[in-house]
């Protein structure tokens, strides 16, 4: 079973980005953890990050075309990108699992983070558990397929 683990804008800056909010571990550390969890769960995982909305939309199209499940942290796109939402909708509409993940709990933060335009088209959402949000999301993918 294949899983694309897609990360949106500013997540490549983990480790240096607002460490009080996002912690001291780097994006490379996240990749290492996710790759290990995928191997443990028997998933063929691939982790990517982009700051570019168009690239993220293209990766979601690729997931549909290659029948690959998705763990998606849309980062700030979560809150306003109908393009990412419409691309995510194609993944779940194709019968693939798409889990929305967040490191932090957006509901405990600023009001603009309380809305996810992606949530309604995701299979489900895991938020607030740091890197473990990804581990739980991968567990959900493995349990569903
Ligand atoms: C985030 C939460 C978003 O509100 C924020 O824009 C991010 C990261 C998270 O993982 O907690 O960039 O998706």
TrEMBL record:
Swiss-Prot/TrEMBL keywords: Amino-acid biosynthesis, Aromatic amino acid biosynthesis, Lyase
Gene3D superfamilies named in the record: Dehydroquinase, class II (3.40.50.9100)
InterPro entries according to UniProt: DHquinase_II, DHquinase_II_CS, DHquinase_II_sf
Family assignment from sequence similarity: Belongs to the type-II 3-dehydroquinase family.
Name the record gives this protein: 3-dehydroquinate dehydratase
Task performed by this protein: Catalyzes a trans-dehydration via an enolate intermediate.
Highest taxon of the lineage: Bacteria
Positions with a binding annotation for substrate: 73, 79, 86, 103-104, 113
Gene from which this protein is expressed: aroQ
Taxonomic placement: Bacteria, Bacillati, Actinomycetota, Actinomycetes, Micrococcales
HAMAP family, alphabetized: AroQ (MF_00169)
Pfam families according to UniProt: DHquinase_II
MF (Gene Ontology): 3-dehydroquinate dehydratase activity
Catalytic site positions: 22 (proton acceptor), 102 (proton donor)
Sites marked Transition state stabilizer: 17
Subunit structure: Homododecamer.
Pathway: Metabolic intermediate biosynthesis; chorismate biosynthesis; chorismate from D-erythrose 4-phosphate and phosphoenolpyruvate: step 3/7
Catalysed reactions, as listed in the record: 3-dehydroquinate = 3-dehydroshikimate + H2O
């Amino acid at each position: 079973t294949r899983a694309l683990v897609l990360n949106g804008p500013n997540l490549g800056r983990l480790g240096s980005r607002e460490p009080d909010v996002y912690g001291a571990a780097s994006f490379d550390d996240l990749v290492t953890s996710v790759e290990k969890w995928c191997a443990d769960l028997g998933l063929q995982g691939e982790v990517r990050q982009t700051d570019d909305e168009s690239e993220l939309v293209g990766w979601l199209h690729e997931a549909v075309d290659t029948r690959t499940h998705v763990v998606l942290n849309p980062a700030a796109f979560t809150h306003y990108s109908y393009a990412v939402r419409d691309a995510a909708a194609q993944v779940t509409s194709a019968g693939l699992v798409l889990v929305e993940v967040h490191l932090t709990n957006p509901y405990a933060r600023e009001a603009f983070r309380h809305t996810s335009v992606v949530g309604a088209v995701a299979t489900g959402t895991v938020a607030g558990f740091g890197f473990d949000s990804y581990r739980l999301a991968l567990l959900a993918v493995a349990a569903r397929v």
